[in-house]
C-alpha cells in the first residue's frame, strides 16, 4: 500500500498490509507537484525516512528513472539505503519521465541495453537493497513482446525482481506479460488501471507482489474535500462527526498517552 509520511505508514501497517510503497506519484502529490521528475532523490529520501519511522514493514521506494543518469541513480540508491528502504524500483522511462497514468502518447524509453548497464551498476553497489527493474514498454505502446524482451534483459542484468506497468490504453495486455514472465524472477505489479482484478487473481497468474500505489492520496483528497464542503456550508462540527476519527484514535496513533500519562 502506498504511504507518504509516518502517519499514513502507521495506518497502512494497522490495516494489515505487508509492505509500504513510497511512490513518486504520492510523494509528488503530497507536495502539490505533478509526477514528472520534479521531485528530487533528496526529497524522496526524506519521505522514505518518514515512512520508515511510522512502520516496521518492508519499504519499497520508487526511484523513477534514477533522476537522469547512472551517477544520480547510484547516489539515490545510497540515500534510500541510509533512509531505511528495503527495495528500490527503477524504471526505463527516459528523463524527464511522465507518470504512466497521464494521458500522453509521447513516451520515450531508455535503450534497454543502456538501462541494463545502469541496473548492473546499481547491483554492484552492495547497499543491501533489492533492485526492482520496471519497464514502461506497454504504456509506450510497444506491446507485450517488447515488454517481455526488456524484462528478460533486466533479469539478465541481475535485477532482483521486475515490474511491468500498464495504463488504461494497454491494460488488456498486462495478463499476457505477467504469464510469460512468471517464474523467471519475482514480479511486482501496481494495477491501478485494472481495479476489477483482485490481487489473488494476479497472484494466480504469477505475480509475487501487488502494490496499491496511489489510493491513500486519492482517498485523502476525496474524503477531506467532502468534509470541508459539508463544514463550509453548515459551520457546525456536529454535521461532520461521521467524517472524523475520535480524538483517542489520534492520541493512540501519536503515542500521546505515553507522553502524557493519565
CATH architecture of the largest domain: Alpha-Beta Barrel
Radius of gyration over all CA atoms, rounded: 19 Å
Q: In which order are the strands of the major sheet placed? A: 1-2-3-4-5-6-7
Percent of sequence in beta strands: 5-15%
Structural class designation: alpha/beta
Report the uncertain regions: none
In CATH, what is the homologous superfamily of the largest domain? Answer: Phosphoenolpyruvate-binding domains
Mean pLDDT: 95
Q: Shape from CA axes?
A: globular
How many individual helices?
A: 11
CATH topology of the largest domain: TIM Barrel
Number of domains: 2
Total strand count, please? 7
CATH structural class of the largest domain: Alpha Beta
Order of helices and strands: HEHHEHEHEHEHEHEHHH
Percentage of helical residues? Answer: 40-55%
Head-to-tail CA distance between termini: 34 Å
Task: Provide an overview of this structure.
With 262 residues, the chain is an alpha/beta fold. It has two domains: 6-213, Alpha-Beta Barrel (TIM Barrel), CATH 3.20.20.60; 222-259, no CATH class. It has eleven helices and seven strands. The chain has helices at 6-14, 24-30, 41-54, 70-83, 112-123, 143-156, 174-181, 199-205, 215-234, 247-254, 256-259; strands at 20-22, 59-62, 87-91, 130-135, 161-164, 187-189, 209-210. A seven-stranded parallel sheet has the order 1-2-3-4-5-6-7. Helix 7 links the parallel strand 5 and strand 6. Helix 3 packs parallel to helix 4 (70-83). The two termini are 34 Å apart. The model has no long low-confidence stretch (mean pLDDT 95).
